[in-house]
Design brief:
This protein is 61% helix and 4% strand. It is mostly helical. It is globular, with a radius of gyration of 19 Å. The N and C termini lie far apart (63 Å).
Length: 252
């Protein structure tokens, strides 16, 4: 069968996108999905309920996600070629600033150490997107982020369903709202290659743990703060934190 020039071009572009996503678009929150087989093992008893390995990893990975998606949002605001792309950037910045604030608020209460750098894998996401320009920048950013958001969505639901810790439960509520908001604005750009995104979301890549784990902060270093941006006037309809002690772990 002969392909027309336009059809062949489409196949080539589609193939290039497959390679890009195959090489780069692994789960942002791989550590949550690939923790030890006994993720329910309790590592601390807090006044907010027991803290499991999965709970701790979730807090760390939410923080880590913000460390690459917040600056990527700023890049999209500055370099996006359409109004929809710039709007998506605003949502990324505002959403992750809110998640970051909650992570920084609850981490000391739970005895969780937060990273100041994204994982090597996540840093590579940013470097790859940063190397693109124009429409290619838009398309690469949107599709990588849509894959990673789509993969973390069910992981958030699992944490929310299983955690007995009220602070982790509230973070999962906020993360659920934020990720759904981000998926929505990314799809509104019209650049999501849905077929390839679905394929990548169900893939099970094997990466070394040191590539998917954010490095620990340097001893004594101040914690990096993702600056809130109320000036952007973006509302993601997120719940407010209410860190009241709840030793029983019952739902409030």
């Amino acid at each position: 069968m002969r392909l027309s020039r336009s059809t062949a071009g489409t196949v080539f572009v589609g193939g290039a996108l497959v390679l890009t996503l195959s090489a780069l678009a692994y789960p942002t929150m791989l550590g949550v999905q690939k923790t030890s087989s006994d993720t329910s093992r309790i590592i601390a008893n807090t006044q907010y309920g027991p803290l499991t390995e999965a709970d701790r990893d979730f807090v760390v990975k939410v923080r880590s996600a913000g460390l690459w998606e917040y600056p990527l949002g700023e890049m999209a605001m500055e370099r996006g070629t359409t109004a929809a792309m710039k709007e998506a950037g605003k949502h990324l910045v505002v959403g992750h600033a809110g998640l970051d604030e909650m992570c920084r608020k609850i981490a000391p209460e739970l005895g969780v150490t937060l990273p100041n750098q994204a994982s090597p894998q996540q840093q590579q996401f940013v470097a790859t997107i940063d190397s693109k320009n124009g429409k290619e920048f838009d398309s690469t950013a949107v599709n990588i982020m849509r894959v990673t958001h789509g993969q973390i969505f069910p992981a958030i639901a699992k944490i929310r369903a299983n955690t007995q810790n009220t602070l982790v439960r509230q973070l999962a509520d906020l993360a659920n709202d934020t990720v759904l908001d981000h998926i929505t604005v990314l799809e509104k750009t019209g650049l999501v290659n849905q077929e390839q995104v679905i394929f990548q979301q169900t893939a099970d890549p094997k990466l070394p743990q040191d590539q998917t784990t954010p490095p620990p902060p340097q001893p004594g270093s101040p914690i990096l703060v993702l600056k809130p941006r109320p000036d952007l006037n973006i509302n993601t309809a997120s719940p407010q934190p209410n860190p009241n002690p709840n030793p029983s772990g019952t739902v409030r």
